[in-house]
Specification:
Layout: H1 9-19, H2 24-52, H3 57-68
Protein backbone atom coordinates (compact mmCIF):
# COMPACT_ATOMS: atom_id res chain seq x y z
CA UNK A 1 0.00 0.00 0.00
CA UNK A 2 1.23 3.50 -0.68
CA UNK A 3 0.06 6.86 0.61
CA UNK A 4 0.90 10.44 -0.16
CA UNK A 5 2.33 12.70 2.53
CA UNK A 6 3.24 16.36 2.54
CA UNK A 7 6.59 17.82 3.57
CA UNK A 8 7.92 21.33 3.68
CA UNK A 9 9.93 22.20 0.60
CA UNK A 10 13.11 22.65 2.64
CA UNK A 11 12.76 19.19 4.16
CA UNK A 12 12.39 17.50 0.81
CA UNK A 13 15.24 19.54 -0.62
CA UNK A 14 17.51 18.45 2.27
CA UNK A 15 16.54 14.79 1.85
CA UNK A 16 17.11 14.88 -1.91
CA UNK A 17 20.50 16.51 -1.43
CA UNK A 18 21.50 13.56 0.80
CA UNK A 19 20.06 10.62 -1.10
CA UNK A 20 19.12 11.79 -4.59
CA UNK A 21 15.71 12.06 -6.18
CA UNK A 22 15.11 8.31 -6.54
CA UNK A 23 15.86 7.38 -2.90
CA UNK A 24 13.51 9.81 -1.10
CA UNK A 25 10.82 7.19 -0.42
CA UNK A 26 13.31 4.69 1.00
CA UNK A 27 14.85 7.39 3.20
CA UNK A 28 11.47 8.49 4.56
CA UNK A 29 10.43 4.86 5.11
CA UNK A 30 13.59 4.17 7.13
CA UNK A 31 13.03 7.33 9.18
CA UNK A 32 9.44 6.32 9.92
CA UNK A 33 10.56 2.84 11.02
CA UNK A 34 13.18 4.33 13.36
CA UNK A 35 10.55 6.64 14.87
CA UNK A 36 8.16 3.74 15.43
CA UNK A 37 10.96 1.86 17.21
CA UNK A 38 11.69 4.90 19.40
CA UNK A 39 7.98 5.27 20.20
CA UNK A 40 7.85 1.62 21.25
CA UNK A 41 10.87 2.03 23.50
CA UNK A 42 9.38 5.17 25.06
CA UNK A 43 6.17 3.26 25.80
CA UNK A 44 8.17 0.43 27.36
CA UNK A 45 10.11 2.85 29.57
CA UNK A 46 6.87 4.55 30.63
CA UNK A 47 5.32 1.19 31.53
CA UNK A 48 8.40 0.12 33.49
CA UNK A 49 8.54 3.44 35.34
CA UNK A 50 4.83 3.22 36.14
CA UNK A 51 5.39 -0.23 37.66
CA UNK A 52 8.75 0.43 39.36
CA UNK A 53 9.15 4.18 39.71
CA UNK A 54 11.56 6.36 37.77
CA UNK A 55 15.19 5.39 37.31
CA UNK A 56 17.40 7.17 39.85
CA UNK A 57 20.65 8.91 38.97
CA UNK A 58 22.49 6.23 40.96
CA UNK A 59 20.84 3.39 39.02
CA UNK A 60 21.63 5.09 35.73
CA UNK A 61 25.28 5.63 36.75
CA UNK A 62 25.59 1.98 37.80
CA UNK A 63 24.11 0.78 34.50
CA UNK A 64 26.42 3.05 32.49
CA UNK A 65 29.44 1.83 34.47
CA UNK A 66 28.45 -1.77 33.82
CA UNK A 67 27.94 -1.15 30.10
CA UNK A 68 30.82 1.21 29.39
CA UNK A 69 33.26 0.80 32.28
CA UNK A 70 35.65 3.72 32.51
CA UNK A 71 34.95 4.93 28.96
CA UNK A 72 32.62 7.66 30.25
CA UNK A 73 35.04 9.01 32.83
Amino acid sequence: MSVSVSFHTGTIRAIRSRVGKRRVSAYVEAAAIRQLERDGLAELVADLEAANGPVTAEQLAAAEAELFGDELA
